[in-house]
Amino acid sequence: MKNVVPRLMLVCSACVVIGCNRSSTPDSGIRIGMMPKLVGIAFFDAAERGAREAADELGLQLVYDGPTDARSEDQIRMLDGWLAQGFDVLAVAPNDPEGISRTLKSARDAGATVLTWDTDANPELSTRQVFVNQAESQAIAFALVDVMAEGIQARGEQLAGDYLIVSGTPTAANQNVWMDFMRQRIEDTYPDMKLLPHLIPGEDQQKAQEQTAEAISAHPQLKGIWGITTVSLPAAAKATRDADEADQIYVTGVSLPSMMREFVQDGTVEKFVLWDVVDLGYLTVHIAKRLHDGTLEKGTFDIGRVKGVEVRESEVILGTPIVFDKSNIDDYSF
Amino acid sequence: VEETHGVNTHDASARAAASQLEPASKRFDRRRCLARLLPWSLLALALILVFSQVQRPSLLMSVWVPWAEVGCLAIAMTPIILVGGIDLSVGSMVALCGVVAGVLHHQFDWSIQAAACAALFAGFAAGGANGLLVVAGMPPLVATLATMAFYRGLAMTFSSAERFAGFPDGFLSWSTVFGVPAQFWLLGLTFLIAVTVVHGTRFGRWCYAIGDNRLAARFAAVPDKRVDGCLYAASGLVAALVAVLNMMRHNVAIPDAHMGVELQAIACVVVGGTLITGGRGSVPRTLLGVAVISNLDIALQFLSTSVPLLTTESRLVVIGILLITVAIWGERMEGIRDR
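Predict the joint structure of the above. Result:
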């Protein structure tokens, strides 16, 4: 028995070594590491579909992976690993724009092409080359506020009352920027809306639902809830429906059509905002390739199958946000 | 024999007993060699895998940095486990110390040097509080489980659950010293100190004696409570140092960072071959444990980019199986059950 075990081990290790050598045969194309905020949620699964499509078109080797929790330190670990493995391009959706920046800087120093997508890093500290943005942050934020205001007025009610934003992680740059623009829009255009302190349940649907339910019972004057991550909007909708408050509270925000279908059909949510997530993943890989080849130019182009992409100095804009409602929600596959 | 040298008995009788055991201890040595074979071969395999995948070798350092942090904590954990204790609060202490420095620097405008010193003091105090609880008679598992939650809660409260980003360049420039990340210097330093203290001083022999049989040690006039207190305080201090170095490296102090790092540290100690019940083990072995676990993890992460089966989740399964194998193997080969 004692002699068997070491031999078995040797055989196993030999197999692993052989296996790994075979799999690491040098590939001619460039290797792209694309990292979402976290894996295992529908939004980033949809983005992966688009990214793989683009990688197949361009003949690139794409690794799409990220942490299981939306944590900056896990992202840094994986990025350092990719970098040591010699990845040519890193495309990251950072959970913390500051915490990731020194890692991205070291990636740039090591000669990798670095871009961000979905949400930005600190542009100066990280020296990332381009941020692939889903839409103008201001446009998303204003659309969110306008959908809410118009929806409530269409119900024939006054805007005055309490409003709540359910965000994700406290450090997510995209949500924080949207909230700034939302506050600005509310101050300028709808001063009757009174914002409660926003919730930060993390990218966790269960937690988001619990915290929203608590807020609903704590604030009887609550008029509207924005769920501004793809996870927190269905959570907010569910909490509102469970509390039987869908008539009193207008719920909207950012999420995927596939996650929101049931709430739109039963009327808990009338409208919500998003962009084409599959296209976002697709575009990111295309931009990564062009950036790496040095062929990315400023202007407005059709890139791959995506029409009218606006390329700026250090930002690429996918398009304008889409407002989903009963009429168009079934047209989208993500 | 390693495990007898800690016991504080008269030399003559110990030597006599040892000579009677001569044939048995020879057999023992062969088994010990076998016991060492598995972790070393795993380490060799992992290193082969890592180096076969690396294309920018100079950046391997930064891949190891988080594990160097775990290593520092594991080395501070080793004597605690040797005396039969455990410290589950190290991850929370790292977060707390980072937050203390962040709050003092950002909200109270302390200089970063003063804030870092305060963080070190906070770590020492937090560790000392652990020590006091244990000395007061709480089981270490319960005491540090409680402070794990308590320190994490403090960190979240002090920081209002926000992270602090942006420290002076002069402070950040210390993140590498002579081209090597500061974490490795700290690892070397804690290792040297721990080896000296645990294996070269009376204090170290006390640790073994306490872990072997606390009551007997107490009868032999070993100040077991004082030893406990010192060890937990030292663990807190190391946690604070890790926190400060982490801030230097990433330019940010995060209240919910370093979660679960205590379990990684404990795993490193145990895989190294230190008995979780105390009395047997050594600091260099812990370093071996760190090397094995870290390189296995890194190798699997590297492989996962070309082997689609190795997702983040299934990697944990592989690591778990390997660690259980190492633990069972070590235990059987060292014949603990035979004794």
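The first strand of chain B starts at residue 164 and ends at 165.
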